[in-house]
């Protein structure tokens, strides 16, 4: 009788484990929403998208308007409104400020992932963060062109590789520089609102040789947000292009941790 009693719990535990494993295998993966930053477009995520899709994640590469923080965040929020299931929200560079504001009020956003990105507190701007942590080569490398109602900023192609993508092949950076999308100057000067990282768990990938957002600023923002942080020494601001495996891995880590 004792032998039978001992066998029953073991079988029950094994069955429960198998059922749990099967349930996890059939649970739909969260949608990964990728938000590019200034001087880029959704194609900057191409290598990351291909890796995530191979692992079964539905992915949306949002076309960030780059017109202003409040309007860009409102646009992203409208996209999040259309997604029924859980979301892992990822931002690169200025896109980090956009996800910080846009995720507030969206209970389906389970994690924020910052890729060499701004993660501002309430009232901060991109410019104020760069002023607080000197070392960025971005401001003196900008070319400004007026448009009706405002001014757009581009990175001078002569300086693009050094400032933005020093560890990316030169031929690739020439194409990136030629096809860069400008950002309205008002976007970097507009203050952030309530930060979503205060209530949503976050992950942060620091680019250790970033010449656009100083690594010291990235690490400080990650600490403040209590983010799970990974540092890639020698990585440029375009870390999502030069290190797509590491970038996709941190996104998957966030997805697993919050599922």
Automatic annotation (TrEMBL):
This is Alpha/beta fold hydrolase. Residues 32-246 form the AB hydrolase-1 domain. Keywords: Hydrolase. Gene3D superfamilies: alpha/beta hydrolase (3.40.50.1820). GO terms for molecular function: hydrolase activity. The keyword DNA damage does not apply. InterPro entries: AB_hydrolase_1, AB_hydrolase_fold, Sec-Metab_Biosynth_Hydrolase. The keyword Cytoplasm does not apply. Coiled coil: none annotated.
């Amino acid at each position: 009788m004792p032998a039978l009693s001992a066998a029953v719990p073991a079988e029950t535990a094994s069955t429960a484990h198998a059922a749990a494993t099967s349930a996890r295998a059939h649970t739909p993966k969260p949608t990964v929403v990728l938000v590019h930053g200034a001087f880029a477009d959704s194609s900057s995520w191409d290598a990351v998208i291909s890796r995530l899709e191979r692992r079964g994640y539905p992915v949306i590469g949002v076309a960030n308007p780059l017109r202003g923080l409040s309007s860009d965040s409102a646009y992203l929020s409208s996209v999040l409104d259309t997604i029924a299931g859980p979301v892992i929200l990822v931002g690169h560079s200025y896109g980090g400020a956009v996800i910080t504001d846009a995720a507030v009020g969206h209970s389906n956003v389970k994690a924020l992932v910052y890729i060499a990105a701004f993660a501002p507190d309430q009232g901060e701007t991109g410019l104020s963060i760069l002023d607080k942590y000197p070392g960025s080569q971005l401001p003196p490398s900008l070319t400004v062109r007026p448009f009706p109602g405002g001014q757009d900023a581009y990175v001078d192609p002569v300086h693009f590789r050094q400032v933005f993508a020093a560890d990316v092949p030169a031929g690739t950076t020439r194409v990136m520089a030629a096809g860069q999308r400008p950002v309205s100057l008002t976007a970097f000067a507009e203050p952030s609102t309530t930060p979503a990282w205060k209530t949503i768990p976050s992950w942060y990938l620091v680019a250790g040789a970033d010449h656009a957002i100083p690594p010291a600023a990235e690490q400080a923002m990650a600490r403040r947000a209590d983010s799970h942080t990974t540092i890639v020494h020698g990585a440029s601001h375009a870390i999502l292009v030069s290190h797509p495996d590491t970038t996709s891995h941190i996104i998957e880590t966030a997805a697993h941790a919050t599922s």
